[in-house]
Amino acid sequence: MKKKILLMGRSGSGKTSMRALVFSAYKAADTARLGQTVDVEHSHVRFLGNLVLNLWDCGGQQAYMSNYIDSKRHTVFTAVGVLIYVFDLVGEDSEEWDKDVRSYKDCLSALQTNSPDAHVFCLLHKMDLVEASRRRSVYASRVEELQKKSEGTTIHCFATSIWDETIYKAWSRIIHTLIPNVSDLERHLSLFARTNSAAEVVVFERSTFLVISRSTAKNLLSPNGGTENKGPVEYTSSDEDNDELLGFPPSSDKESSSQLSPGRFGKISQMVKSLRLVCSKLQSHFQAIEIQGATFAAYLDVLTPNTYIMVVTTDPRIELGAIKLNVHLARDQFE
Ligand code: GTP
Q1: What is the C-alpha to C-alpha distance for residues 119 and 236, in angstroms, rounded to an integer?
Q2: Shortest-distance atom of ligand 1 to CA 31
Q3: Would you call 140 helix, strand, or coil by DSSP?
Q4: Nearest ligand 1 atom to alpha carbon 58
Q5: Residue-wise pLDDT tens for the chain (335 aa)?
Q6: End-to-end alpha-carbon separation of the chain, Å?
Q7: What ipTM was predicted for this assembly?
Q8: In this structure, are residues 331 and 305 in contact, taking their beta carbons and an 8 Å threshold?
Q9: Residues lining ligand 1, judged by CB closer than 6 Å?
Q10: How many whole angstroms separate alpha carbon 125 and alpha carbon 9?
Q11: pTM of the model
Q12: 44 vs 178: CA distance, rounded Å
């Protein structure tokens, strides 16, 4: 199954940088040496067995943009699964922003005719360059404007930067929309989490380490640990939008909305990718990680040929050996 993803936005907005970070294990600092994209750069990424992402990184110089809208309209905008439009917040210049919005509207209109079912994601990118105290308001006003200009098309917006975990979260969400039968996977995962009395179970895609699905004990997502609820543990796969993760300073009433770090998956991804790189330099094969902390234990291992699973427990009575055995026994179920 092939899914076409269009990555569009003005020249220098950061399209190739985010692609390099997510799919080629680049570090943010290394993106400064990337050159401008000439016309469209195609790449195919095998993702989860038979799902192939057909990524179109569309160079953003004006001449190319005009070409996509005019002579190449049909070729570019047909059979699209996802449009990711990257808005550059650098300087927040209103003239550049207005120009960007006009280009976005042209792309959206071409998409509505040629791929009416495509999902649309707008990334308000380089949020790190906006003063921290203004991020929330800049984001809110830009999203409001984009929603108005999108005229009936449902759009999903993210504040992103290559310098923190926001880019990782946005891409995990985007990829999530493309995975077939994701609700079955979520059901299996929550059963697995309950069986292991786990605090959290996460399935990652093997090469990018993007989160495909997760199941988190709901009590860990509340500030006091949900101690008032003594019933069976409930699990959730839903992802709360978290100010801290979006790069906004937390508002006082949300300050401690969760006991879990909102950027934990992005950090795990970076850590495992670096570890894998070191292993390959030593001509050694990376297979699994066991961590025994003072208050928790974690186990990360291969689940299927294209995925890893991570199981986190906070109950000291649970042996890591039992978790390992359960991961081994669950493999057939997840194949
Ligand atoms: P074209 O290929 O011309 O369409 O440009 P592009 O959209 O692919 O831009 P590219 O990825 O080449 O990035 C341009 C510059 O922006 C690079 O120097 C990146 O390091 C920088 N950049 C990308 N993302 C971010 C970000 O989140 N924050 C900051 N501060 N800089 C970024």
Answers
A1: 24
A2: 20
A3: helix
A4: 4
A5: 789 999 999 999 999 999 999 888 788 999 999 999 999 999 998 877 678 899 999 999 999 999 999 999 999 999 999 999 999 988 666 888 999 999 999 999 999 999 999 999 999 999 999 998 888 899 999 999 999 999 889 999 999 999 988 898 899 889 888 888 888 888 889 999 999 989 999 999 988 889 888 888 877 666 655 555 555 677 777 665 555 556 565 555 544 455 677 778 888 888 888 888 888 889 888 889 999 888 889 999 999 888 999 999 988 888 889 999 999 999 887 77
A6: 17
A7: 0.98
A8: no
A9: 9, 11-17, 31-32, 34, 36-37, 59-61, 125-126, 128-129, 161-163
A10: 10
A11: 0.85
A12: 15
Instruction: Extract the tokens encoding 31.
Output: 């993106």
Read off the amino acid at residue 210: L
Phi, psi angle pair for 20, to nearest 5°: -65, -35
Atom 20 of ligand 1: nearest residue by CA position: 32
Output the CA 281–ligand 1 centroid distance in Å.
29
Which residue from 17, 87, 92 has its CB within 8 A of the most atoms of ligand 1, so it is best to mutate? 17
Give residue 16 CA to ligand 1 midpoint distance, Å. Answer: 7
Element housing 62 (H / E) = helix 62-69
